[in-house]
Amino acid sequence: MSNTQNVFIFRFRTIFLFVITSAISALGFLWPFLVTTRSSNIEKLFLWSAVPIALAVLIVEISNRRLDAKSVALLGVLAGIASVLRPLGAGVAGIEPMWFLLILSARVFGSGFGFVLGVLSLFVSAFITGGFGPWLAYQMFAAGWIGFLAGSIPQRFFRFKIRGRVEIALLTLYAIFAAMFFGLLMDLQFWPWAVGSQTQLSYIPGGPISDNVHRYLVFHFTSSMAWDVPRAIFTSALTIIAGPAILFTLRRAHRKAAFVAPIEFGDLAGRTIERVKAQTGQI
């Protein structure tokens, strides 16, 4: 089998697992609008399936050589730092310093790295905070999505690299979006059980989707802004203040470590073939 075929198989396998992981996590978040009865079976199935599939993504990333030993070591270091940063805010009004580090790391190392870093950071932080529960799988995949989207922000605008103040402004806007997005997703797993069954904001098992969506949105905007807005302000402020220095440090580490390839889900075929040719002396 040729190198091109191997690269295609590796790439297809990783993308396939990522799509399956995202689909399962999406079902886990959206189940209140999809099921007809109040049941915890779907939530349990999601919780039991989420962590093994996330670990499968990591294993595939390592096996297809998009994460070499240096990348795995850096992933462990950043996940450890992020997990320690998370409880520093003591859960006060949604202030969690880890998010800006996740966004900046994903920006430098790519969407695949950002996804795995987000998942692992929340998993490791659960050991520190004792935060194991049905909510953990939701937090892990919400963080994974945030990391993936941060790594997917374009590096160039036509021929111009996005750097300097423009890059910081772009990441600041994304930090605000990510903070709000995380709150929106977390309320989805909390809302069906939060307000009982006899209020105007209660989840209606088997009710019309439009009614449940309306009730959820009212619940979210009346109960979560005290958490989401401070999280957005704090994360964006850290991005503005520390972003340039952190980006410089991470990019310098990337160059010094001489990773075998960009750590992302994107097209790797061309670069892999060039690397193989260089190693065999064909170019």
Automatic annotation (TrEMBL):
Keywords: Membrane, Transmembrane, Transmembrane helix
Transmembrane segments: 12-33, 45-63, 69-88, 100-129, 135-154, 166-186, 232-250
Keyword Transmembrane helix (UniProt): yes
Gene3D superfamilies given in the database record: 1.10.1760.20
Keyword Transmembrane: yes
Protein name: Unannotated protein
Species in which this protein is naturally found: freshwater metagenome
